UniProtKB/TrEMBL annotation:
Example of a GO MF term: transposase activity
Cleavable signal peptide: none
Family annotation (InterPro entries): Transpos_IS110, Transposase_20
Superkingdom of the organism of origin: Bacteria
Domain Transposase IS116/IS110/IS902 C-terminal stretches: 132-215
GO biological process, one term: DNA transposition
Organism: Candidatus Acidiferrum panamense
Entry protein name: IS110 family transposase
Amino acid sequence: MYSQLWRYYPQMLGLSDDLAAGWLLDLWTMAPTPAKAMHLRKTSVAQLLKRNRIRRIDAETVLRALREPAINVADGVAEAATIHIGSLVTRLRVVSRELHDAMRKLDELCACLDEPSPTAAEHGGSGRQDVKILKSMPGIGKIILAILLAEASGPLSRRDYQALRTLSGVAPVTKQSGKSRMVVRRYAAHVRLRDAVYHWARVAIQHDPRSHSRYVALRQRGHSHGRAIRGVADRLLALACTLLQRQTVFDRDFSRGEELTAVP
C-alpha cells in the first residue's frame, strides 16, 4: 500500500501513519487519484471524518494535503497503482472486519470469566478471583490478559514465579567458565508470552509510578531500554504471583516501604 501510494499519490501518505485505517480507505475510495482529489467537496470529507469519529484532523487540512502539487509520472503508472491499491483495499477491509469480530469475541470471553459458574464455586471461585486480580494490575488489558491465561495458565495457577520469568524470557542466562562470568539475555522463550509480558511492562511504566521509577533507575544505571523493560517485567511477575497467592487485587495506593516479592 505504502509503495503504491508513493509511486503516484504521496499526498495521501501524510494524512496518517496507519494506511489500513478505515477512514483512510474510505477517503482513497472517494479520491483514488490526485486529479479526483481536486474535485472533492469539503462537506463530503467532513461527513467522512465525522462518520469515522476522526477529530485530530479536519476537512480543510485533508483537502489542503490532497491538493498539493501532484508528481509527474509516466503514462499508465497511476492507473496500474490504482488497480493494485483497489485490490489491497478490498483485502484490508476483510482483515479489518475479521479483527473487529475477533476483538468482540475476546470481549465476550473475558466477560464470561468474570461471571460466577458452578464449577468455580465448587473450587472456591479461585479462578474467577485470579482473573479479577490480573485485570487489576497496571498494564494488563484484554489482549495481554487473554495471552497470559492461554499461554501461562499452568504457572499462574501454581503461582510459579520462576517458571513465568523463564518462559517469558525475563530471567537472564548466566554463562560461566573458570573466572569468566557473563550474564546475557535469554532468547529461548515462549514468543507470544514474551511479547505479551514486554508490552505489559511497557504500558505499566506509563501508568504506574512505581514501575516508572524502576525503569528510570535501571536506565540511570546504564541499562538499555530492553533490559530496563525486562527488569520492570520481572517485578510485575513477582508482584502478580504474590497477589495471586494472597488472593488480593492490586492496590495502586499501597505505600508500604518494602517491595512485594513472590512467596517461595
